[in-house]
Amino acid sequence: MSSVTETTVNRLDVMRDHEIGEGVMNGNAFKDVLRESTAEAVRKRIQEIREDVVGHVNKRINDLMSDVLGNIEVPSSNNDKFLHSINKNSDKRKSSKKDGLPDKEFLARNSLLTDLFEIPHIRTVYNLFMVTLILLLFSTIASDIMEYGTVRAGTKTLQIGFAKFPTCIYIWLLMQTSTFGVYVAFTLWANQRLRFLPKSSIRKFCDYTWLSAFILYQVVFFIIPVRMLIKENLSIGCSLIIITEQLRMVMKSWAFVRSAAPKYLSYKPHSETPRPSGPSFSQYLYYLFAPTFVYRDEYPRTNKIRWTVVFWNFAEVGLTIFYLALILERLVVPAYHVFGTQYLDRKWFVKNIIESSVPGILYFVTGQYLLLHAWMNAWAEMLRFADRLFYKDWWNSTTYAQYYRTWNIVVHDWLYTYIYKDVYDIMARNRTLAATAVFLTSAIIHEYIIAFPFGFFYPVMFILFAGIGFPMFFVRKYVTNNVFMWLSWSLGNGITFSLYSMELYARYNNCPPHPNYYLDLFIPRSWNCQKQFNP
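RESULT FIELD:
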């Protein structure tokens, strides 16, 4: 009886355990179903949210495109609203000549940074540079008080850099006045040659005489200002003003003659072509001061002058010049003023070349902003010059080919219009030869700008442009990286700063010169300066 009872109890226990197991399994299954249904609901909800977000974004994009197209179709008549095109950075139009290269096209548009600074995120970058200027000013003031007991804050550098400034203005006025003679001579030639028959020997004599006189004028224009700045022993800052203005006036006069002369040379008296009329003196005068090197009889103009914009841009010019002086005084002079006074080992050279990359890239960016944004926009606003595409987004460049075409549109347009296109037409449409001529011209000009103000020939700029920059122009298929571009700009400017600073202090600190005066101008003293010290 007891055994039967035990068996029954065991069966009941088994049945109970089985029921409990089935209950647990059913519970787990219920939980799995609940979990799957919850996950499915969450997925559906996420999908609904995604569709709502995408729809909202598409609606905003469509609204934005409608606004942009509306601005394109109906341009505002206000002075501060410029005309826009589909690609506002496009500045070339199809040539009127068959198979010719595109021509420069002037459109009414803002400078790129003017538009970008309307975006708060981009404006922050501008604010960071202002903060850097303020901190550098505080650092300079503190250093001046501790070292000299007085506050100089860059004024000493500016005084040295722009000594004899009235003499600089006097030379500039003489140069600018002489450019008016180009217009007078051109007008006389243009009117006189039309009086003679097309195949007349007198006309040919007149043409060749005037061309020879113009070339002679260009040569003399290079020589006399240089002789004057050497004779007056102008400071580096004043010399830079004279040399850059000299080049500006030469490029302007060349562009004027090169653009205006062909319509007189191609005119035939008995053809249906109307008799050419020369540009007026007011047109020539406007061109001399307009922020472009490419000549046109007319340019797109704005409706009025916004004097607040003019004043602010000139204020930025003053601030950036002061900023550059502070960079020199705090980051360059302390590092290199000892050169030529004591022995310096190789570690010193390597360390300073790398550290000079910081002031070098600051000078590079600030100088570009000074000349191509603040200065150009100030003159453009005063002259109501509407096309303010003086540069493109060079900071986004991934190749040197892109960088050379975007960082200085003003000079690039002149090189393209009057060097590249002419060489391209003469040399059987060979683009490589045309590009070589442009690079060689640019390298010589940059070295010329540095050599005479500094008082010595040290072909660092020439080598960087012609020896390094030119080959990099043709490897754009292999090197396409923005980080590499910024690194190369930084190191390149660091090397330039370092080598020119050492040569300046080598001459300032009386390192032994070469016995021959002319060889001393071409042989850097910094190469042999360390030999006078015994380590």
